[in-house]
């Protein structure tokens, strides 16, 4: 079954380029395109179960209603829809505002189409994704701490194995399970088991919280 996506982007050329890039992926179906957040919000208000999107690809800098404000309002209309910010803005405050308003992922516009499809599938599986280029300072900002010198490792390693620490380091860099499996030349099933173990040992709810704690405790 295809994942239904709507695209919210004010620049027509960019919008058409994204649509063209996603066209070969039969498991992703773009069911609507809008040039500002207000149009997207109005659409969400009138959605039926049949045409309600599973995910929204949302630009931020748009006229009439920007992506952050649109995300906030859409969250009140449909708290279940996944919102992926797709933007060229990498400022810390903007990223924090996006997640505070309910974004599930934050991708930069130079992302490859293949990776964007991966991100869509990740958020549909309940994961949070942050572009690697901004992941570290966003994780630091979200957890409210300053970076710690790598030469001073914490004494609390949470009984993580060396492999788990290796995988946690890659998670902290914004890599998904598939990328980690390819990099470490291990199966996706093995990665998933390690991630599950890491989350349990750190006593957190998801991989994003695990990455935040890892940076805070200087485990990685």
Low-confidence stretches: 145-155
Helix-strand string? EHEHEHEHEHEHHHHH
Integer average pLDDT: 86
Distance between the termini: 38 Å
Major beta sheet summary: 6 strands, parallel
Helical amount: 40-55%
Instruction: Provide the β-strand percentage band.
Output: 5-15%
Structural class: alpha/beta
Taking all Cα atoms into account, the compactness measure Rg is: 18 Å
Continuous helix count: 10
Shape: globular
Number of strands: 6
Q: Major sheet: order of its strands? A: 2-1-3-4-5-6
Structure description:
This protein has 220 residues and is an alpha/beta fold. Residues 145-155 have low confidence and may be disordered. Strands 2-1-3-4-5-6 form a six-stranded parallel sheet, sandwiched between helices. Helix 7 (162-172) packs across helix 10 (207-216). Helix 3 links the parallel strand 3 and strand 4 (82-87). The chain contains ten helices and six strands. It has helices at residues 12-22, 37-46, 67-77, 92-100, 113-124, 132-143, 162-172, 177-184, 188-202, 207-216; strands spanning 3-8, 28-34, 55-58, 82-87, 105-108, 129-130. The protein is 50% helix and 13% strand.
Keywords for this structure?
220 residues, alpha/beta, six-stranded parallel beta sheet, 10 helices, 6 strands, globular
Question: What is the structure about, briefly put?
Answer:
By secondary structure, the protein is of the alpha/beta class.
Please specify the SSE layout and strand pairing.
Elements: E1 3-8, H1 12-22, E2 28-34, H2 37-46, E3 55-58, H3 67-77, E4 82-87, H4 92-100, E5 105-108, H5 113-124, E6 129-130, H6 132-143, H7 162-172, H8 177-184, H9 188-202, H10 207-216
Helix pairs in contact: 2-3, 3-4, 6-10, 7-9, 7-10, 8-9, 9-10
């Amino acid at each position: 079954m295809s994942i239904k996506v709507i695209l919210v982007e004010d620049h027509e050329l960019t919008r058409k380029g994204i649509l063209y890039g996603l066209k070969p992926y039969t498991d992703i179906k773009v069911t609507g395109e809008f040039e500002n957040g207000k149009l997207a919000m109005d659409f969400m208000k009138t959605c039926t179960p049949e045409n309600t999107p599973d995910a929204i690809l949302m630009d931020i800098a748009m006229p009439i209603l920007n992506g952050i404000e649109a995300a906030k309002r859409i969250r009140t209309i449909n708290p279940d829809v996944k919102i992926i910010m797709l933007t060229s803005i990498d400022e810390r405050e903007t990223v924090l505002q996006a997640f505070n308003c309910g974004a599930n992922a934050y991708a930069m516009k130079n992302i490859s189409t293949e990776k964007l499809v991966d991100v869509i599938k990740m958020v549909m599986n309940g994961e949070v994704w942050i572009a690697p280029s901004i992941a570290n300072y966003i994780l630091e900002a979200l957890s409210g701490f300053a970076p710690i010198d790598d030469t001073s490792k914490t004494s609390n390693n949470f009984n993580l194995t060396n492999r788990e620490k290796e995988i946690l380091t890659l998670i902290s860099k914004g890599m998904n399970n598939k990328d980690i499996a390819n990099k470490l030349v291990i199966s996706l099933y093995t990665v998933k088991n390690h991630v599950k173990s890491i989350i349990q040992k750190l006593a957190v709810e998801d991989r994003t919280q695990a990455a935040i704690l890892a940076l805070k405790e200087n485990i990685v």
